[in-house]
Amino acid sequence: MIPQGDLLLDIITVLQPGDTVNDVAALIDHTQQWAGKKLNTVCVYDASGNWDNITAHSWGEQVQLVRGFWDNDLGRARLDALNTATAEWAIILTVYDRLSGDAKKLATLLNDPHHHNDDYGIVEVTTPAQTFHYGRVVRPRKAATDTTVWETLDTAFLPEQYATHIPADTLRITQHPEHSRISSQQHPRRLTRLLREAEKEKTADNRQCDYEIATEYQHLGEIDTACQAYAKLSAGEDDWAWAAREAWADLLTSQQNLQAAAPLLEQLEAGPNPDFAAWLRAKWCAAAGKTAQALELMQNLEPPTPTLGTSFPEDAVLRARLRLASRAGRQHDELTSRLTLLVAGMEIQGAGKKLLNLWGKRRPEDLAEVILSTRTNHLEDIAEEFDHSPYPGNLVARVIRQHRQRYSVAAVIIARDEARCIQRCINSIKPFVDEVLVADTGSEDNTAELAQAAGARVIHVPWTNNFAAARNTALDAAAADWHVIIDADETIAAGGRELRDLHDLSPEFVLTVNVISSFRLGEATTTESEPQSRILPGSVRYCGLVHATPEHDFPLRQVQITIEHDGYEPEQLAEKLPRRERLLHAAVNAEPNNAYLRYQLGRNLETQGRLAEAATQYDTIDFATLEPEPWQHILIVQYAHTLTSIGRSVDALTLLAAHTDRFDHSPDCHFVAGNVLLDLATQQPDLAAELLPQSVAEFRRALELGEPDDLPGHVTGRGSHLAARNLAVVEQGCRDLGIQLPQQTTSSSVGDDSPSSIHESRGDSEEWADLTPLPAGSLDVVMIVKNEEAHLAQTLESCESLRPLLGEICVYDTGSTDNTQQIARDHGARLEQGFWDDNYSRARNAAAAMSNSPWLLVVDADERVFANPTELALELAKGEQRNDETLYIEAAPTDTDGKVRASGEYWMSPRLYRPDLASYARPVHAELRSKKGKRYSRETHVPRTAIRLENDGFGQDRIKASIARALHLTDVAATSRADASDSLAVLVDKARALWSHGDVEHAREALQQATAMSSSTTYYRWAYQWLARLELTEGTPEAAAEAIDALKGMAPTDSYTRWLEAHLLLANKHASQASKILQRLDEVVDAVGLLLPPEDLAEAQLVAARQADDARAVAQALVRLGQVRGDDELVHKARAALQLP
Asked: Which residue numbers delimit the Glycosyltransferase 2-like domain (predicted)?
């Protein structure tokens, strides 16, 4: 234990408007007397607007003043204040609160090892009328990032948040009665908006709004008001009622009102979500001191899911049980919980010593036997942990290693005339398996010799026109515990190290991997992904003449292994397709009712371009009798595509409508539906007004769904650039024809209706027609400026293009010494003379606090705004309809003459946002985040016709100043408290600035520090991307290869990973492979969403194609380059070379 005298406490208080210097002085005197020698610092965050008066007072060394701002959001202000704390624990007070208890006892309690992982201490907060239980004792480095929470509670809805209850004789907070309630003038923006919406729709049954209001009151610490709101909402039997009961019961339990919570829990236990009710009951039992009952309830409880929430983390219940058992001193329950976490691989590091202590004097060999009996596949990591633990950990490790069963692993390949690729395949998998076995089925080239030279064992198998028989002969010869099935034209692209784990995994599962195939789509090359069962227990064998499938009854498990397949390239298909067609015809003749064989024959014929014959095979399939299988997604998509291609678009639409419910999650289905509707509109122009809006809705739905990782047969691009391209074409067509564009929805327009009724529907258009654009004054512009007299007037004048939607231009000046402030006043802007504290996010949030509008547009002083206010008002209304918190708009850099660069470079930036739902974080490169602390994973783009920005900040002088400023700010940020993600981002920011400054070594060092941190963040991948980019640029391909390997393990099909991989191949003189990768890329986006300039991609494709001496690839690259540059003559000449229309 740390000596008691070493633990000191910080006091945190926020001065709000109306608080005085005397109020602060009284609080400081009180806390100094109460805490005595246990006081570290009193941090006073001044948001009162009286900074000059506050700083004029002499406060002493223990008082730290922080200048802030007020935006009616006490949660945000408290988090800002906590960032300045330096002690391990802090107590949060208002200036009117008073403390009682014993500071020394509090320090002793918080110093107890049982509380070293706690985030909060729950304290009694009393008024003359009531007692509340709030988390006012906080560990600052673990403070939640949800700024909507003013008072933290011990809630069952946040299992990752750990709290301890502090006895009243140790600490109690007494609130002044006049300051214990929140007035309506103090409500944060989000509650004000919700109450306004509820008032506007009070005749309607808006239960979602009512639920959000109740939750908001709970976050503000308005317990009675929240309980009343939950009680009102709990009437009924719908999901909102059950969710309200859950939240109400949890809130009562958190406030120790156990008697009132009990009948609610009884209702929930008899309701539709008994698992979550059991979790709430366990929390209730723990609060009531019934530890044994709580532990029993958690014993076999799976991670629960609230009625209106997401499932808890896999280890949530286990960790809660462990903490409860540890605090209660129940060693057996603690031991079983720690063992469960250990063998599940959830908590290995540091577990050895704790387990040995709990195991006590029992034989260490018995502990090893218990671990072995679980058949965990983490045995080597566990043994290593015990090796590094105190004696007798080495005995446990030795027994584990001696008695664990090691399972053999063999890669199995059947091949014929695959000299082109056999060694590539073997080399990719050989490091991860015990043996590679190649079954040669009659090669006439030197496939067998090359395989043997690469280290494989080669057997010769007579070919009998039966793929299953060949595979089974190979499996018999391999005779391993695990067989990894891979074809000669495939390679292990990522996750190969997971194959080594098979040595410790009992072969009781069939493991599926992700197989990515590349193929040509018009001029471009794209990819298709499909999960396939490729890792099989040794007893499994195949059936099927051509596309052989493994027969088994084992459960399936997905593993993070990616196999890349290039067998669909034209050169390979020309050889394989006719041979496979003959075999498939024979198989179909033998089993005419086998739908899977019909599907495979149809795909074969389709790939050969024989679409009518393919459709005939698909037509034969009886969908009504099919049991659901993953391959049927590909069948539906390809069938519809084929029907459309041969002029049977109505049949295609009927097919898609029949399967809408099953495949509504598929961007491929919506993409094809969009194409079908577009084709019908082209065939029947009189129906264009009905069909084109439906086509728009389908492409939008595809974009909304994005690129899934686990959808069989998904074609990369149908959830991104391919859908975006088609959407732009159809939307422009609608505008040209004067057709109303539809409102964005989240459901398909091909639904359950028949084609005839679909043609008669105008639902989407009517929805858009009914949507009211936001009124004038709904958007404010917010800016932070300093010494911007050279650019500001032009920027402010450009903002006039937003009127009448524009309300105010809010300019937050951080200390200008030139004419900036006068320019702002002359242009009618609202000006605040703020301050600069090396924190962009703080300044942006302070600028936002100047506005009362529902939407804000963030503009820099060196940017110009080009807007269509009528269209933008509608886009903002759509955003509110979709519950968007931010909207992305196009920003393009300009050259020194102020013109947009010819390269077509631009980026999509989240500049429009709703300040009641989002705010800025990170001091250097300020980032918009949800006020609940979450980063945004979905991007909603506003059309450039509604608004776009041009940025003039790319001159040499401004770039140099920006680099110098970034270097300074990253140093400042590195010393501040931040979570792992922000700390990692700071290191990447610093590396970028250092590299731009020419300091390669220190940039590399910063990136290496970043990649050594936690991998549970987007910035981790960003750090590796920058490290690989740096190593490639600086001519160290070996180091770049290590970084790229790490990226492939995280996201093997990610566009930026492929971009870097191609450049590594070019550096290593493998131009042909690099060219193929680059041809498949339609756009390149990095981990934080920055788009590579299209011209850079086109130029790289051209360089690689020329080095590969590939004339067709050169012509394709020239087509792209011409399109990017707007050079029609170049496009025409390149198309002529390709003999393309």
From this structure: 412-493, 781-901
